[in-house]
Design brief:
The protein is built from four helices and six strands. It is α+β, with helices and mostly antiparallel strands. It has one domain: Nuclear Transport Factor 2, Chain: A (Roll). A hairpin with a 2-residue loop joins β3 and β4. α2 runs antiparallel to α3. The longest helix is centred in the first third of the chain and has 17 residues. It starts with 8 loop residues before the first helix and ends with a strand.
């Protein structure tokens, strides 16, 4: 059995960091595949009103721009989930185009949302620009801007 001494600091730190990344199943590096998976996880969490999952996906300094131009922070967006009904509205990502720039990725997402609002069925498509980066070894959404498509 090998015993690690504190004098071997970098090796121990590297080992602990690697184990933590494996435990969270999140890669330390931003890749196109990673962001595509994150976009699907984000969409699923939004539809399910999963504040815990969204809290992990969204950076503490998240800036969200609504289709009407209003801004919201992470805490404001999470508070807004209090009135969310899981599964309504529903959403699917029709396309996700990812460009990676070092430790930052920009995803252009086209999604379709369907459901009922004020007793009437609706369907709307939105285009979003999402900016992802790695913070503390895990990818997080730092900025989102959403626009409604005209049909």
């Amino acid at each position: 059995m090998k015993v690690f001494m504190l004098s071997q600091g970098p090796s121990v730190v590297s080992l602990v960091a690697a184990l933590l990344l494996q435990a969270t199943n999140l890669p330390a590096k931003i890749t196109t595949t990673t962001v595509e998976q994150l976009e699907e996880a984000l969409n699923t969490a939004l539809v399910r009103c999963d504040a815990a999952r969204l809290g992990r996906l969204w950076d503490d300094q998240l800036t969200f721009v609504f289709p009407n131009g209003n801004l919201a922070t992470k805490s404001e967006r999470l508070a807004g989930l209090a009135t969310c009904t899981p599964g309504s509205p529903g959403a699917i990502n029709e396309s996700v185009d990812v460009k990676v720039y070092g430790d930052v990725a920009v995803a252009i997402v086209l999604s379709k949302w369907t459901g009922t609002a004020e007793g009437k069925p609706f369907a709307a498509r939105f285009r979003a620009t999402h900016v992802w980066t790695a913070r503390e070894g895990r990818p997080v959404l730092v900025s989102a801007h959403v626009s409604q498509m005209k049909e």
